[in-house]
Amino acid sequence: QKEVEQNSGPLSVPEGAIASLNCTYSDRGSQSFFWYRQYSGKSPELIMFIYSNGDKEDGRFTAQLNKASQYVSLLIRDSQPSDSATYLCAGKYNFNKFYFGSGTKLNVKP
Amino acid sequence: EAQVTQNPRYLITVTGKKLTVTCSQNMNHEYMSWYRQDPGLGLRQIYYSMNVEVTDKGDVPEGYKVSRKEKRNFPLILESPSPNQTSLYFCASSLRGLLYEQYFGPGTRLTVT
Q1: How confident is the model over A67-86, as pLDDT tens digits?
Q2: If you count residue pairs, one on A and one on B, with CB atoms under 8 Å apart, how many are there?
Q3: Considering CB atoms only, which of A4, A42, A49 is closest to B101?
Q4: Cα B103 to Cα A42: distance, rounded to the nearest angstrom
Q5: Residue-wise pLDDT tens digits, A24-68
Q6: Residue A38, pLDDT score
Q7: pLDDT value of residue A8
Q8: Phi-psi category of B15—alpha, beta or left, where left has phi over 0 and alpha has psi -120 to 50?
Q9: CA gap B101, B78 in Å, rounded
Q10: Which residue out of A25, A27, A43, A50 would a mutagenesis test of the B interface target, given it has the greatest number of B Cβ atoms within 10 Å?
Q11: Pick among A2, A48, A98 to test the B interface (most B CBs inside 10 A)
């Protein structure tokens, strides 16, 4: 059974702080990882993907992948109230299948 | 506008009454997929399709059917819905391959009584 685990939260951070979201996965065959943001009642939207070990930065967002430890993280710098949402981590396996975590709810307090 | 559309957006039905949720994309994507989202369980893949006439099971295919007769359409069929299929359903599409993101439809909230 391939699994992606996330802490459900909620994770509360003050405005302007760094939010750190983490995800672990069970299958070493997972080839790439995606972070999605989902506002309540809305569909998921992609923030970033990563497939190589190390860091990948895009604006205020940094994704980190450590294949040896089987974890993926997302850092959000200068967090804004508009970042308050549920963040979904997903692993892609065998080019075809996606496995999603249950999501971490982030609250950014003004 | 590039998009994935789903219909209906909301549906309340009764146990055993066959229903179809349609999904259509206008991005010429080869890969399409259906998910259900339940509280505490996240998104779980029901079926996916790599291309026309090519479909395969995801993690939770029981009670569902799909077909892919045209590239743009990927309907989800519940032949005999049951209350445990009450959920929020998302259709998604992407280009084939390891790194391509999925674009999600707006979701269909299904209630089976």
Answers
A1: 999 999 999 999 999 999 99
A2: 55
A3: A49
A4: 13
A5: 998 777 778 999 999 998 999 999 999 889 999 999 999 999 999
A6: 96
A7: 84
A8: beta
A9: 27
A10: A43
A11: A98
**Contact yes or no for B98 and A99 at CB 8 A:** no
What is the pLDDT, as a whole number, of residue B7?
98
Give the per-residue pLDDT at B97.
66
Structure tokens at B2: 């590039």
Residues in chain B, pLDDT under 50: none
User: How many CB atoms are closer than 10 A to CB A109?
Assistant: 11
| Contact check, Cβ <8 Å, A100/B59 | no
What gap in Å lies between CA B65 and CA B69, rounded to an integer?
A: 13
Contact B103, B6 (CB under 8 A): no
* Amino acid symbol at B19: L
- Interface contact A49-B99, CB threshold 8 A: yes
